[in-house]
């Protein structure tokens, strides 16, 4: 389509044509024809030039943590000479990078790089790329969208935690006082299930797979000591402001990372219909992606939702509840689920302990309390050291 200069030239064309009609001067007609032809040729030129234009993009890395940087490389490939080319690549909600080149030549790719500051957490669409081409006189331009659409996942930043709660086995079939962890499950065959992306192919039950014509996985019984249910409270009313909720999300990410790296197979629930059990690296990425997109909601019914999880038989090990300011609903949840776990932890984003936190402590719940500007690592270490001292005195 014509540029601003092109529309001005068309306006001048009309003016010259009217003047020619009024005065009969042939030069006015020639000027009008020249401008009209120039704009028309420019439109045809840019339409033809955009054929054979391709863009390749590479985002490194595709998964980052909040506050990190990602580098995006954009490569422009053309099949014919182009002049006055502008390339615009957009990371939606984060910004747009633009590159300009006076000329593009076939066989000589143009490469541009830009850096993205990945904040806040979330999933961002990168692309498609806008390629803008102008004719040599600047009378017309054509804009095409090309290239792939990439997805940049920004995980919440986590803190490195030290120490684990003492989780003695309560399973009547497990008579042990020492915690033993198994990242891949127990030794006893439990059941068969359909294959999921990320499953260990060594656990494929080939006779059943051949019979059903689909991959079947041997589900192993998970030891009670290596289980954990991590609950991130999504109820908006329990967080006085957005930063408090974000700090709770960082706490959840820290606990998921710490438990998984320590040999647990934690199950994460953030208010969605399904919880995520972290047993492989792919499932870990899925859980972190869940935390990257979680948002506070109104009217979250924790007891009802977690009751469904309880029916699935998820129990044993540790129960971790992460919230802003605990209240009666959290105490009721603890009374419902606490008996299913050997140890319960409450992580609260609060400047000081309230009545509910005091009642949790009286009930033997391990509490980790920090303000929204505090560090989970120091509060966690202090709570763990206190729990070890208590266990020793017993």
Annotation field: number of helices: 9
Low-confidence stretches: 169-188, 390-394
Order of helices and strands: HHEEEEEEEEEEEHEEHEEHHEHEHEH
Percent strand equals 25-35%
Overall pLDDT level: 86
Roughly how many Å is the radius of gyration? Answer: 31 Å
Question: So, the CATH homologous superfamily of the largest domain?
Answer: von Willebrand factor, type A domain
Task: Please state the structural category.
Answer: alpha/beta
Q: What profile does the largest beta sheet have?
A: 6 strands, mixed
CATH topology name of the largest domain, in short, is Rossmann fold
Number of domains: 3
Helix residue percentage: 25-40%
The CATH architecture of the largest domain can be named as: 3-Layer(aba) Sandwich
The CATH C-level name of the largest domain is Alpha Beta
**What is the straight-line distance between the termini?**
82 Å
Oligomer: single chain
State the strand order across the main sheet.
Answer: 15-14-13-16-17-18
> What overall geometry do the principal axes of the alpha carbons give?
elongated
DSSP summary, beta strand count:
18
